[in-house]
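Fold these two proteins, one after the other.
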Amino acid sequence: MEPSNTPEAKDARRESRMGQSRTPMHLVFQASIGVILGVGLSSILNLPTAQLALVGVFISIGAWVVEHGVSFTSRSLRTQGWIRLALKLVALIGFTVSVRALLTLI
């Protein structure tokens, strides 16, 4: 018997893959590093918790504005990827700093 080339048969083959993660591992690694660095930075800084939360918010907003507001005209896609990765990591670190500071205020 020949395998069917209908869309239903292709979808059935795709759904039968067990044990595969839908989240790419580089995103999990990036999130882990961002959270670890954010917690470390918030424990190193000796600021009141409200100021620390405000600093984290400014870091996150600044990284987001640079990521979305500046167009990188590098000819290399790899360089653009590294720049965007660094900006997303900085935004995650700022978010972690602000959340950790706000959790101590509760």
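Now the second one:
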Amino acid sequence: MLIVIGGLPGTGKTTLALPNRQQVVDREYEPWERERVVVDTAGQSPRQSLALLLRGLASG
């Protein structure tokens, strides 16, 4: 599958190929070793969500 996008600056490419299943399985992964910042946007304004995100990033 190809994804058509507006273009990748400096590359001249306009499409990206999605990896196949084996490429994903073979990819090297590293464990996440710090707290995640989770922002649940349901029931709050974009301004409140941004404030929560910025607090989370400042504490990490």
